[in-house]
Amino acid sequence: MSAAEGPLVVGVDTSTQSTKALVVDAATGEVVASGQAPHSVSSGAGRESDPRQWWDALCEALRQCGDAAHEAAAVSIGGQQHGLVTLDGRGEPVRPALLWNDVRSAPQARRLVEELGGPKAWADRTGSVPGASFTVTKWAWLAEHEPESIRATKAVRLPHDYLTERLTGQGTTDRGDASGTGWWASGTETYDAETLAHVGLDPALLPRVVRPGEVAGTVRDSHDLPFSKGTLVAPGTGDNAAAALGLGLRPGTPVLSLGTSGTVYAVSRRRPTDPTGTVAGFADAHGDWLPLACTLNCTLAVDRIAALLSLDREAVEPGGSATLLPYLDGERTPNLPNASGLLHGLRHDTTAGHLLQAAYDGAVHALLGALDLVLDEDADRTSPLLLIGGGARGTAWQQTVRRLSGRPVQVPQARELVALGAAAQAAGLLTGEDPASVARRWHTAAGPVLEAVERDQETLERITGVLSDAAPLLERATGNTPRA
């Protein structure tokens, strides 16, 4: 048996590339066991994964956790947002899931915005103006390109919903993940009948939205997971909402997450409605809101530039006149789904290190440009910016964010914040606490603070100018970009 002080809980992060599981002491936040297993994602124009891989990866990650997972009293699943999972009458995938970073549905996104009242109407109704990442656009793409898959679909789920249902046998989701679909109305916190009718999606195919703090179900006995029958299952949520729980965020604290995608977000008491589409008006996982801006191209794009230059990712050089917009997979912020990478300003004295620094600058510029829109007007613009995700430990990332933001930067020592947030949600079921309060009790946000430096306004303005001047090029479709 574990020597933990309190009951054990399991938090899961099923991300784009892998599934991670943590067994956590609910009393102290100590991670007593962990496991991880990879997924594969298709390449090319589409980004797809077989959901059964996620289940196999969860089983393997829990196997690596050993006996501690079997002792757990509650479990919660945090997962990649937006992905479209279509299931047949037996609960098996009709086809591979369309992932959040599959931008083939960009034409459908544009049409849906136009057909249902324009950007402001969408923002007022759902909190967001849907881009190609949103689930509703993927359903519209599937209806147009694979009507046979639509006819075979008897249930529609998000990635975290799929795993939760495999545990409990019940189709459930939560408000945080539902708010990224495009068919959940943030004003009424219900599925939007008009949107569903327009895209031909029967609401009976959708999961029940479980409220914060509610038990989604219990672990059934018809599976091979090392959980006891009757173990409590929390609602789970999307990855960003789970990370917000994992940090114990209070309203107004800004977060910049450096992962496969880059995001900036903050908890807010006010329901967001940005008609420009820059800020997605997501719900969070405990009753408030999580206005968020996301870029498709972050650590993966910068690492690709480093590889092309045969440089270590830390081998940046200051100075130089080059501007590099690393839009290698299209882009979401700014909304340029057909864009490709762009390099401008080469000189004889430009070095490879200058180019790599320019890639960092281009990625961070997009995120910081949305930060003021994410924060409420009364938020403290001088408080530390929490830097999380895979890139947060990198010196080049830290210094680029620090220089271009002009803010102090705090790097939490806790890792795997999505899984920790899910664990805090599971712990809340046992203790009756708000999961964010659980995470604060665990001190998950503690970490060193890098003092503020003067903001590099010259670089920011140069990138903004190139982006504006290059708009016609960036909006032009190329041979490898999605088409209707």
Automatic annotation (TrEMBL):
Residues annotated for substrate binding in this entry: 81-82
Reaction catalyzed: D-xylulose + ATP = D-xylulose 5-phosphate + ADP + H(+)
Gene3D superfamilies given in the database record: 3.30.420.40
MF terms (GO), sorted A to Z: ATP binding; D-xylulokinase activity
Enzyme Commission numbers on file: 2.7.1.17
Site (Important for activity) location in chain: 13
GO biological process, one term: xylulose catabolic process
Domain Carbohydrate kinase FGGY C-terminal: 310-427
Carbohydrate kinase FGGY N-terminal domain: residues covered: 9-246
SUPFAM superfamilies given in the database record: Actin-like ATPase domain
Annotated Pfam families: FGGY_C, FGGY_N
Enzyme class, UniProt record, top EC level: transferase
Active site location: 239 (proton acceptor)
Keywords: ATP-binding, Carbohydrate metabolism, Kinase, Nucleotide-binding, Transferase, Xylose metabolism
Function: Catalyzes the phosphorylation of D-xylulose to D-xylulose 5-phosphate.
Family: Belongs to the FGGY kinase family.
Name of protein: Xylulose kinase
Gene for this chain: xylB
